[in-house]
Amino acid sequence: MAHYAADCWDAEIECSYGWIECIGIADRSAYDLRAHSEKSGVPLVAHEKFSEPREVEKLLIVPSKKELGHAFKGNQKMVVEALEAMSEKEAWEMKEAIDEEYVHP
């Protein structure tokens, strides 16, 4: 494991040549930023201080491709793309409409 990595993983493929490493993944944390900062003397960090803690509610669209595939068959890709292209405002409006129709009729 590399000296700067907190953890490492390898993905291997078995083929006619035997097992071959196809990718190596290293959890480098903030090693690069810290090293650049130490060499340059410039702090590479940012933060914004608030007078009070803020709580922000966000609606994330995470399509269940398996379920959408069962429901929409050949149109699954089109439905997933439409969902992923939605703005947060559109997503909230759709959620409210679904809640009104199915959750709180």
From TrEMBL:
<dbReference type="GO" id="GO:0005737">
    <property type="term" value="C:cytoplasm"/>
</dbReference>
<dbReference type="GO" id="GO:0004812">
    <property type="term" value="F:aminoacyl-tRNA ligase activity"/>
</dbReference>
<protein>
    <submittedName>
        <fullName>(wild Malaysian banana) hypothetical protein</fullName>
    </submittedName>
</protein>
<dbReference type="InterPro" id="IPR027031">
    <property type="entry name" value="Gly-tRNA_synthase/POLG2"/>
</dbReference>
<dbReference type="GO" id="GO:0006412">
    <property type="term" value="P:translation"/>
</dbReference>
<dbReference type="GO" id="GO:0005524">
    <property type="term" value="F:ATP binding"/>
</dbReference>
<keyword id="KW-0436">Ligase</keyword>
<keyword id="KW-0067">ATP-binding</keyword>
<keyword id="KW-0030">Aminoacyl-tRNA synthetase</keyword>
<keyword id="KW-0648">Protein biosynthesis</keyword>
<dbReference type="InterPro" id="IPR045864">
    <property type="entry name" value="aa-tRNA-synth_II/BPL/LPL"/>
</dbReference>
<keyword id="KW-0547">Nucleotide-binding</keyword>
<keyword id="KW-0963">Cytoplasm</keyword>
